[in-house]
Write a structure and sequence with these properties.
Blueprint lengths: L12 E10 L11 E2 L1 E15 L4 E3 L5 H14 L7 E7 L9 H15 L7 H16 L6 H8 L4 E6 L5 E5 L4 E7 L11 H12 L5 H25 L5 H18 L5 H12 L4 E5 L6 E7 L3 H11 L5 E5 L6 E2 L1
Parallel strand pairs: 4-5
Antiparallel strand pairs: 1-3, 1-12, 2-6, 3-5, 6-7, 8-10, 8-11, 9-10
The structure holds alpha-D-galactopyranose.
Length: 331
């Protein structure tokens, strides 16, 4: 719950929104499919230093003002009175690593801007505002997964979201495993990527086009939705069947590589290394075209694993143990 912001409220007020790593359910959130992301303990902090006047948001990278204007425009279109504010942004998320730094920024802005006029939006409506603002700011026709994860995160859990019905629930992460994120160091910007093209190809396929490309895109999404269901089943049975998880994650990576064509040689290399170094499960995560892999690694191996995968990789990687954390809120 957000307390509406008024001029009388003591400033600064501080809002926090986390990034996410997606466990499974990739490129399924713009066709009503299932996703299973985890909110991280890395994210965006937004400090409101003044209420009223023009909307002015500063950050070390230049993008924050563009996002702020997009969120304000989105809110205005939905009939929200948007007051001006001054705010500064800091982030602990690596930019372009596939951990949704821009979604976290959008969610933090939507939280702060809806707190200003004294009206409050519900969780998934806030996610929708941030999602549409992202498309407005960048032209990328993204789904809702990243923003929903940033809002719905819970410590120690993933968020299972059905992007059709918008029903969601928390799913506990497997005991005895660390969630490791390895950034390939290959930077991407989604607006320059084939994201929109992939979405069009998928939609063509869903509309019945019979060409091989469209059919492969649909095959990925249909099989991926089934894999999400299966991962949730595995995570809910004790003890967790790590071999089964590994097999599903391998299939997911192959499907993204071959049928959806969003992996890169660097991501493929990291996934192979991860299995070789003792990960129970590993696959590329996020939109692809660069960015990161996610791995579930037996906890006792995790510290060595992060060192070893960085050393073995042909490029320059960063590996970190991710902490599944709570969702966006006012601090
Ligand atoms: C990006 C988008 C999400 C989702 C993923 C792929 O992160 O912002 O909406 O489509 O790619 O699963």
């Amino acid at each position: 719950m957000i307390t509406p912001m008024s001029a009388a409220e003591p400033l600064p007020r501080t809002f926090w929104a986390p990034g996410r790593v997606n466990l499974i359910g990739e490129h399924t959130d713009y066709s009503g499919g299932l996703v299973l992301p985890v909110a991280l303990d890395l994210g965006v902090t937004l400090r409101v230093t003044q209420v009223g006047g023009p909307l002015r948001v500063t950050s070390s990278d230049g993008d924050a003002q563009r996002y702020a204007e997009a969120v304000a425009a989105e809110l205005a279109e939905r009939g929200f009175p948007v007051a001006g504010l001054e705010a500064t942004i800091t982030t602990t998320l690596p930019i372009g690593a596939g951990l949704s730094s821009s979604a976290a920024l959008g969610v933090a802005l939507a939280l702060a801007l809806t707190a200003v006029p004294g009206e409050v939006l519900g969780g998934l409506e806030l996610a929708e505002v941030a999602q549409h603002a992202e498309t407005r700011a960048t032209g990328v026709p993204c789904g809702m997964m990243d923003q929903a994860a940033s809002i719905l995160g819970r410590p120690g859990h993933a968020v299972l979201l059905d992007t059709e019905s918008l029903r969601w629930e928390h799913v506990r992460l497997p005991a005895g495993h660390a969630l490791v994120v390895v950034d390939s160091g290959v930077r991407r910007r989604l607006e320059q990527s084939a994201y929109a093209t992939r979405r069009e190809e998928l939609e063509r396929g869903l509309a019945g086009a019979g060409d091989p490309v469209a059919r492969r895109r649909v095959r990925h999404v249909e099989s991926e939705n089934e894999r999400v269901r299966e991962v949730v089943r595995v995570l809910r049975s004790e003890p967790v069947d790590a071999d089964r998880l590994g097999k599903i994650f391998r299939d997911a990576h192959e499907s993204l590589r071959v049928d959806f064509e969003v992996s890169t040689p660097e991501l493929d290399e990291l996934v192979e290394l991860a299995y070789g170094l003792g990960a129970s499960a590993a696959r590329m995560t996020g939109a692809g075209f660069g960015g990161s892999i996610v791995a579930l690694v037996p906890s006792e191996r995790a510290a060595r694993f992060t060192d070893e995968i960085v050393a073995a990789y042909s490029g320059s990687a960063t590996a970190r143990v991710g902490v599944a954390a709570g969702g966006a809120r006012e601090l």
